[in-house]
Amino acid sequence: MSSSADLVDDVLAEILLRLPPKCVLRCRAVSKRWRSVATCPAFAAAYSRRRPLELLAYPEPTGRRRRPHRRRLLRFHNPAHLVGSCDGLLLFVVHQRSFLVCNPATRHWTWLPPLPPRRCTYALATGFYLHRPSGEHRVLCTYSVPMHHATPGSVISIEEAMAMAGNFHYVLSTGAGAEARQLGRIAHHTFTSACVTLGATLYWLHHPEAGGGGGSSADIVAFDTVSETFRRLPRPPPPSPGSNLRAFDMDGRLAVSVVEKLSRRMDVWVLHDGGEGSCWSCILRIDELPPPRYYNGGFYQSYEAVGVLEGGELVVVGGGWVVVYDVKGKRELSRVDHRGRVLNLSMWLYRESLVKLPEPDPRPCPISLPGGEPLLHYYSSSDDDDDADVHLYGNRISGRKEKNKQEDREEGKRMARDSSLVFSLPDALCTLPPSPLVANGTAALHRPTNARHHPPSLLQPPNLARPTCA
Amino acid sequence: MEVDKGKGEAEETRKVAEADRDTVTLKSSDGKLFEVSKEAAARLSTVLAGMIAGGSIDDNGTDLKQIGSEALENVVDYCNKHANSIPSAALISSSISFNTAPFKEPEEWERKFVDRLSHDALFDLVEAANFLGMERLLDVTCHKISEMMKGKSPDQIREVFNIKNDYTKEELEEIRQELAWAFYDD
User: Do A29 and B142 touch (CB under 8 A)?
Assistant: First the structure.
């Protein structure tokens, strides 16, 4: 008669791989052997490879409570903004200039090294990646020091002030004892678009290093995370003005989705080979995306591809929808109504992991909720939730017709029937209602009140957001 | 002369018969014999496939000393009844370090297959599946065991799995402090 005490390590690992992170952590307390199996690096690596790729939507778009396959990963409060996701780690910027990394699965967190103290500055994370040679997770960021605030409280010459002011690339690392490291000064500061990480290279459609003021014809910029150098790549063939472009990772290759102004047709271009002999080819055309919605202040942002989930499911966001499209079968698999008060929905791909931070901070996480709530609130909604109401939103749009509501309800029922389909979607993150920013000394004095962490996308034609119907 | 010829012929007939046979005989640690379809065995188990291809299958019962008769019966049952509905083991990489896809949920019949087993039979079967390199059977049995573990405290897990707590009180307290949140139910 066997007892499970003699399960071989391989089998035990196979079993633990199938458990949610919380259970795996608990199992460390079962016995020393279990702990050694559950903490070995090979197990951690296999564990994250076995997690599905999920989509994080932030902030939560509407007040509806439940959605299919949705779970709340983490609660955080207002001065913090989610600005990156890599290997199961989430990157937040707090008070516009401090970076915090946390792993919601293990609830470990740490501050990244501080940027040099300057008054009235802000930092923008442009990339969050694994630096393979060191195994550290790093942030590439743009650090801006306005001229008139370069000196905290002392009188200096113009020359000195000019030397201090400007925009700089910095690299911050989770590595133990690391300090913020300046990579260089940025000549022409422009908007930086969402970053795509492929292997050891980061890519941006819009980046200051593209030069030439970063217009719509500027080059794509690539950053080698090992040599820490920038280079430029050609864009896909120029689309008509006002098109909405977004770069994303398509099975390990750089892809760009292109949607012309006011169009529902999307072309997906893929870059073949990097370096000198690179060329673009259009590998997919989606002719009819769901018709765009409008809310009482204008249209939702135009369509853009966010990424590819398991099984070749392309996720397209825009027009008040999240659409999952089967790339191989060339058909729409499902769509979720994504209307709400939030216009610039930020989407991140996330894969749960047990990645350890070198020096997790033992203190309570400063962005967690006050009042004794768990540091990071985590729950999983049951997958078999077949409530027909699940996909619907409240009628927040003034002047909408009863008929529309009826249509929505029908659609909700249809979606609920289809909910066994493919959704490892969508939003896992939730914010609290905005709370006033916490002033911390001088930093609060000159903080630009309209500074945002997700600058409005230049890719998004401005007139799309203008209401066309009263 | 005559005798030798007859022996040679018999040998030849036996060889032909062996090659033609579409079943393999497996022998459990306690000496019981089980017949399993050769095609299914080769398709579902990387280890048996290797033995069949390498000619190390014994006609009088291939010894599987690591597997008890109850577990082997379940393995054979699984192979014979369900061979057609399972993809080949050879097509799936068997090592955890190379698998990248998320786990596939067991199908209804697979669920039923493992649900009827006692704890001990289940643990024996998971070891047998691991030993024979039967990817899908390992998948299904591990899934079942992981289901049994979900939501349980370390104490409850020790009880189910018959494991001795080898931590000192202080060590255990340290782990609980470090991972305090994981020990509360949502």
Answer: no
Cβ of residue A343 closer than 8 Å to a chain B Cβ: no
Q: Does ipTM top 0.95? A: no
**Residues A50, B99: C-beta atoms closer than 8 Å:** yes
Q: What is the pTM of this model?
A: 0.74
pLDDT (average), residues A119-126? 82
What are the extents of the domains in chain A?
4-42, 55-72+237-356+379-425, 77-233+436-470
Closest CB to A375: pick one of B100, B102, B181.
B181
Q: Is A270 touching B (CB cutoff 8 A)?
A: no
CB distance B151–A17 less than 8 Å?
no
- State which of A52-66, A248-262, A270-284 shows the largest mean pLDDT: A248-262
Q: Tens digit of pLDDT for each residue in A135-152?
A: 899 999 998 887 765 555
Domain parsing of chain B, residue ranges: 2-150
Mean pLDDT of the B40-54 span: 83
E strand or H helix at B24: strand B23-27
Please tell us whether the domain made up of B2-150 is placed in CATH 3.40.50.150: no
A3 and B167 within 8 Å at the Cβ level: the answer is no
Cα nearest neighbour of B101 on chain A: A50
